[in-house]
Every structure is written in structure tokens, then in C-alpha cells.
Amino acid sequence: MPYLVKAKDRSAAVTAPVRSDGSLPRACVIGAGSSGIAAAKALYLAGIPFDCFEQGGAIGGNWLFQNPNGRSACYETLEINTSCARMAFSDFPMPSTYPAYARHDQVQA
């Protein structure tokens, strides 16, 4: 399945540090699941200093199977309910070797 964002329209992956603006107040991102990672990326690219806090033992939020924080509803056979193409970041697509609907361990990776 082709990606919904055409290759020519994808942002280049960030491979060099982005300088943060020390005159700005620090932001706080609560949770390092899908939304928290997206928020952290946006803040980073905007040069806004931030801290990201995750209650679980690793990043991944609801995609972390047997999350020790006891708040994840992830179960062993969980798969995404939307395609990898729709769930991927424009500059970080899911690997082409993944099935159309990735498993929880693939999403969390």
C-alpha cells in the first residue's frame, strides 16, 4: 500500500540537533505514547525547551504490552485498527515489511 503522504511532500527526517530557545519557558509533555512523542517532536522542531514524563517503564503508552504502570489496555494479540500508512509519521514511515495493520510490538518499537 502506498503511503498517503507522497514522497515529495514528506518532511526530511531530523538528523541534526535543533537549538532550543532558552528565553522561552519550558513546556511539559505528559506521557510518551503516540501523542506524547508527536507533541515532543513538534516542540523540539519549534525550538521550545520541554520535559517529557512517562509513568510506565518504557515509552509506548497504550502500545506497551504488560506495562508495569497497570494502565495500558494492550493485550497480546492487539493490532492497530487503521493502516500503517495512516498511522505513520510523514518523516518516519513504518517499515514496508510490516503488515498493513501492525501488531502492538511493532507500533511500540
TrEMBL record:
UniProt superkingdom: Bacteria
Example of a GO MF term: flavin adenine dinucleotide binding
Alphabetized UniProt keyword annotations: FAD, Flavoprotein, Monooxygenase, Oxidoreductase
InterPro entries in alphabetical order: FAD/NAD-bd_sf, Flavin_mOase-like, FMO-like
Family from the record: Belongs to the FMO family.
UniProt protein name: Flavin-binding monooxygenase-like
Species this chain originates from: Tessaracoccus bendigoensis DSM 12906
UniProt lineage: Bacteria, Bacillati, Actinomycetota, Actinomycetes, Propionibacteriales
